[in-house]
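Hello again, I could really use a second opinion on something today. My current little project is about how a certain protein chain folds up. You're getting the sequence in one-letter code plus the fold written as tokens. Here's the protein in full, and shout if anything looks odd to you:
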Amino acid sequence: MGYFRRLFGEREGSDEPKRGSLPWIALTEMDQLEKMDRSSFRKPQLVYKHSTSCGISSMVLNMFTGAFTYGEEKVDMYFLDIHRFRAISDEIARRHGVRHESPQLLVIKNGAVVAHNSHGGIPEMELEPFL
């Protein structure tokens, strides 16, 4: 059973990813979106939209976490559990004109989404030009 947990991550009820060394900020309140947009003028903001019931979402999160090499000085990283906070995901889509998907990674800079990808495209995203 341990192998499958490592491969697919935790199931329903776990609202945080296996963090490793990444400095995730839990996105749980609607008013965080305004702060995130304001902060994006100082440094880029990443949002990982995660489905706790989807093995693909957990697998992609683990791949992304393992490959991510930037620190807090370069970027703020938000983690959104779309099952618990779907209204926040819908508001992000409305504000930024990016259709909701899961898993999905968004890069917000200067108040706008400058890059996004979903599913298997997330680990292959070239983030350096946006950071």
